[in-house]
Amino acid sequence: PRLRAAPRRATVNWSMPSSRARRLAPVLGLLALAPAGAHAANGTMPRTPALYPPHPCLTLVDRSTATTTHFDVHIPFEDTQLTEDELPDSRTLRFVALCREPSRLEPLPNWIEADDAMRALDAGIIDALPDAADVLRDSPAWRPGHDGASDSCVQLATPQPLAISCAATAAGVDWDVTAVPAGNYVLRGYTFAPPSNLWTARTGVVQVHDGAPLPVAALVSPVYDAKAFALDGYRVLGCMDGPPGTTVTLQWASTTADDLDADASWTSFAELDASAHWIDLELALGEDMVYLGLLLRAVARGPDGASWIAHSPGFVTVYPGDGASDPPQVEPGPDHCDAGGDESGGIGVPEGSTSGATAGDSSGGSSEGGPAEVERDAGCGCGAQPRVPAALWWCACLLAWRRRGPSRRAAASPSSRPAR
């Protein structure tokens, strides 16, 4: 019989150039962080974040004249194609208002409602129900609210989830504050995609009051984890307001502090009068701060004793020397859609305050008179030049083909919208 040569086996070369390996290492690390109980096909997929175009640092809602407030939402791309084993309402966005601002190092629970976790358990997406501390509505850390009630600290700004699509997000969100206890709130976006859900922070504060403004402050720097040099100092930006006599104390603490909830962990470096409205000053950095990560906070106190604590969105790492000899390097992320927008938004005049935009200002608050000029976006609901870590976008690009076809370009929305 004729002998046949054995067929050649196809071989796969799993090696890659060292430069590519270095670029993809963060992506592989992100995949390794997926929960052990993640059984859904989307278990290792990067979650699609909510993004926010530039917006006012402070929005004051006087319920004697208005009962809703509006905020715009962008997405980096559409994400609507579910796998067979996902929940029907997976890959949707919700927006939550919280009665206090968590610090940069305080993670939010993975779940908003216990019912969502139960549905995920029934579907076999998770192996066990989470502890109460990992459910926002049940966590002792998130009660009580401004009115003292045990269940009022968490307010849903969107009664119904929004699809992660241009059509669903183009109009933004109108938050009905009629039944919300008076006080200051921070907004957080929540991407529901069990087993791993994603929170995205919107900088700034929304204050709901009934004719009498309350003490308030907000910090907008550093938005991300920044680099500063001991000889240069660091510029702190934000806004503040309140009744006459309101003061704002600026403080810093090391990220290595044992208890960030204790006032003893914080060092004060400035005392401001809230009537100035703007926070714009230099934090002097000493040699004792070199190689520390610094968190910032602003404590607003009214003449009647009412107070509010604002936390910086990111932290500052201090290096020796000055930036002229070793300037920080910034790596921008790739463009994904046509309109601008990032995870946090920019600083603008406190909307509704005496120094801010009037109700008829369609820009949602002018930046004139403030410490930083911010370009206003035209308002595409699928906006995006998202300033998120490049590793996340690498991860999205590598895995997107497994769950959807080519992304659709954003549909243009009206260029302006009346301020609420």
H-E order: HEEEHEEHEEEEEEEEEEEEEH
Largest sheet: 7 strands, mixed
Helix and strand content put the structural class at: mainly beta
User: Radius of gyration in whole Å, from Cα?
Assistant: 23 Å
Shape: globular
* Mean of pLDDT: 78
Number of strands: 18
User: Are there runs of 5+ residues with pLDDT below 50, and where?
Assistant: 1-36, 332-349, 353-381, 384-420
The rounded distance between the terminal residues' Cα atoms is: 88 Å
Helix content: under 10%
Number of helices: 4
Which strand-content bin applies to the residues?
15-25%
3D structure, described in words:
With 420 residues, this protein is mostly beta strands. It has four helices and 18 strands. Strands 1, 3, 4, 5, 7, 8 and 9 form a seven-stranded mixed beta sheet that branches. Strands 11, 13, 14, 16, 17 and 18 form a six-stranded mixed beta sheet that branches. A hairpin with a 5-residue loop joins β7 and β8 (198-201). α1 packs across α4. The longest helix is centred in the N-terminal third of the chain and has 15 residues, at 18-32. It is globular and about 55 Å long. The chain starts with 17 loop residues before the first helix and ends in a 21-residue tail after the last helix.
